[in-house]
């Protein structure tokens, strides 16, 4: 059977284990020899025990676990050709020419580069007698299928990334808990949630929790935001509300691009309204805990689709990323989605927020 390896790379997210499980089982089911690569690209470069054959039961009882059981890492070595040469050797030694990468846009970019270089890496390995002529011929094509694991929902082309729904559950649980204490003491709470370039978590959490205000990177506040916020909070209290909730995304900014931090919002509320105001920074709690049913199923469906894409690949097949489109797992050209995702970051850096929102599309 075909040699296929799965690895998780970059930041972890809930649901990655479901994806790994699905890749392993679908791969075995379709007759592939499936391997785990531990610690992302680092394990691929280092080889040895980091690359281990998986069997049906090695992915039992992991679907409910958060994070990734095969480890994830950032790897400087893989950014150098020297590192990628070692990685290519480690894969060929095991007959692996199919990769499923679960990570963010950085990880997918690395995979695409690896594929572009594959032929020249193999030539170099042959020239230095690391591989034989037969191996050079047998393993001449590398195939890649990606999936996006990210709690931020910050990738173009997919309606949801693996982990976003679970992170929202964590945030909503936290807000619900805060609301009861805020109510008792008539407090205002400012919740900082993750999302450096993408306000999806903040926006959806605000809608789902009846927050009074939300600050996100894609919609920088106008010059008179202080006045508008204070008026709103004041009105809410006057009409009988005992508390206020304000959600701030990490990357929230004003029209000049200056950060709107939880501290700044707190100062505004305290100075203008003298409300008893507290800040809660959710931080890594958002990445933790068990994956939601949605993320488990999303990981399962995407993992199965990724394996099918690899099994059906021909020499001409370009790397794909498996995306959610409506309620369907579909294959999209990997680099086109990465390029669009990077264009969004660029548009935000250029303060062209309308373009950023337009480029991001449905997600
Ligand atoms: P994410 O995948 O979550 O965006 P990173 O950007 O940190 O996270 O990428 C994860 C890893 O992918 C990096 O540590 C590196 O090993 C690899 N990688 C990222 N960008 C590249 C690149 N341009 N070339 C080669 N490898 C890359």
From TrEMBL:
Coiled-coil-forming residues are none
Q: Kindly list the positions annotated as binding Mg(2+).
A: 105
**Where does the record place it?**
Cytoplasm
Q: Where does substrate bind?
A: 150-152, 187, 194-196, 250, 278, 284-287
Print the keywords alphabetically: Allosteric enzyme, ATP-binding, Cytoplasm, Glycolysis, Kinase, Magnesium, Metal-binding, Nucleotide-binding, Transferase
Keyword Electron transport: yes or no? no
Tell me if Transmembrane is a UniProt keyword of this record.
no
Q: What is its main location?
A: cytoplasm
**Which residues of this protein are catalytic?**
152
Q: Which residues form the Phosphofructokinase domain?
A: 4-309
Report which superkingdom the organism of origin falls in: Eukaryota
Positions of the UniProt region annotated as N-terminal catalytic PFK domain 1: 1-363
Residues annotated as binding ATP? 11, 74-75, 104-107
Its biological purpose is as follows: Catalyzes the phosphorylation of D-fructose 6-phosphate to fructose 1,6-bisphosphate by ATP, the first committing step of glycolysis.
* Assembly and oligomerization: Homotetramer.
Task: Give the family this protein belongs to, as stated in its UniProt record.
Answer: Belongs to the phosphofructokinase type A (PFKA) family. ATP-dependent PFK group I subfamily. Eukaryotic two domain clade "E" sub-subfamily.
| Protein name as it appears in the record | ATP-dependent 6-phosphofructokinase
Source species:
Galleria mellonella (Greater wax moth)
